[in-house]
Design brief:
Bound molecules: NADP nicotinamide-adenine-dinucleotide phosphate
Order of helices and strands: EHEHEEHEHEEEHEHHHHHH
CATH class of the largest domain: Alpha Beta
Distance between the termini: 30 Å
Oligomer: single chain
CATH superfamily of the largest domain: NAD(P)-binding Rossmann-like Domain
Length: about 280
């Protein structure tokens, strides 16, 4: 059993803790607020908890589960307390700028990103089994210690996640398409609806919104901080995908304007047949 420390007990840190303590690992949780540490203990997300970063001292593997912009500062703050053999991993949604910064701080670092989330944030919505059947990406580089990679890989596999491995830059370009672009598209959809000038039509649209709108607006209606940090840390790849998305939307607009229903049907058929390549049956 690995001795685990989790710094940042929110949705992802709490969900990891629920699974890892269930599987018998000793899990120490470190929160900013004593109340969060107590809550994590009460819900069984950790086996010990507190607010002192020195609590990482006994850990074999540390998961940094803070927001993206606090990951490197957190690593810097815990480094003096860790044994040199300890492995640090993170769960941040962007890897291109975090991985080199972390590698410079701690040689036994392995970048990671469990691809599972919710519209809400915080420990209260943490859930056991959140990562099962979902992709868990590890982003080793030439500098990654193979033994450290193997240890993080084994823990991620124990969550019944679907393991995947790629370079941090490839990760960022891929998640720009399937995670960061959808947040911007989905939030734009909600904001565009709000642009309806007739209050009666707007109210009616809100009344009629059902499962389709629920699906398409879910990621856009999520936590604003996460979307903002994705854009800030993955700006170039996100802008590239937004540009291509705009061109695609323009193409659809041209077909509708020209009443070219055959071409529109073809485009929608192509979308329908391609979707299963992204969304696999459970
Ligand atoms: P969250 O629910 O808001 O949890 C973040 C936790 O970090 C909170 O417990 C928070 O403590 C703590 N924290 C905030 N600022 C901190 C700081 N400066 N120093 C130390 N701790 C701090 O967020 P989350 O969704 O779990 O996201 C955490 C990480 O997972 C992010 O890096 C994100 O990119 C990644 N991720 C998120 C998702 C998703 O869909 N949500 C999916 C995969 C990966 P307080 O409660 O005291 O504020």
């Amino acid at each position: 059993m690995e001795r685990i420390a989790i710094v940042g007990l929110g949705l992802i840190g709490g969900s990891l803790g629920l699974d890892l303590s269930r599987y018998g690992h000793p899990v120490v949780g470190i929160a900013r607020r004593a109340k969060t540490a107590e809550q994590a203990l009460t819900m069984g997300a950790v086996t010990a908890a507190g607010t002192d970063l020195a609590l990482v001292a006994e850990a074999d593997v540390v998961f940094i589960c803070t927001p993206i912009d606090a990951v490197a500062a957190t690593a810097k703050a815990i480094a003096p307390h860790l044994s040199p053999e300890a492995v640090i991993t993170d769960v941040a949604s962007v890897k291109g700028d975090i991985v080199p910064a972390m590698e410079a701080l701690w040689p036994n670092f392995v970048g990671g990103h469990p691809m599972a989330g919710k519209a809400e944030a915080g420990l209260a919505v943490a859930e056991a089994g959140l990562f099962a059947g979902r992709p868990y990406v590890l982003t080793p580089t030439e500098a990654t210690n193979p033994a450290a990679l193997e240890r993080v890989r084994a823990i991620a596999a124990s969550l019944q996640a679907n393991l995947c491995q790629c370079h941090p830059d490839q990760h960022d370009r891929a998640v720009a398409w399937i995670s960061h672009l959808p947040v911007m598209v989905s939030s734009s959809l909600i904001l565009a609806c709000q642009g309806e000038a007739d209050p009666a039509i707007l109210a009616l649209a809100q009344t009629l919104a059902s499962s389709g709108f629920q699906d398409t607006s879910r990621v856009g209606g999520g936590v604003p901080e996460l979307g903002m940090l994705m854009a800030r840390h993955n700006r170039v790849a996100l802008l590239e995908s937004l540009t291509q998305y705009q061109q695609q939307l323009e193409q659809i607009k041209i077909l509708i304007t020209a009443e070219d229903w055959d071409a529109l049907h073809n485009a929608l058929t192509q979308a329908q047949t391609t979707r299963p390549a992204y969304i696999k049956p459970a």
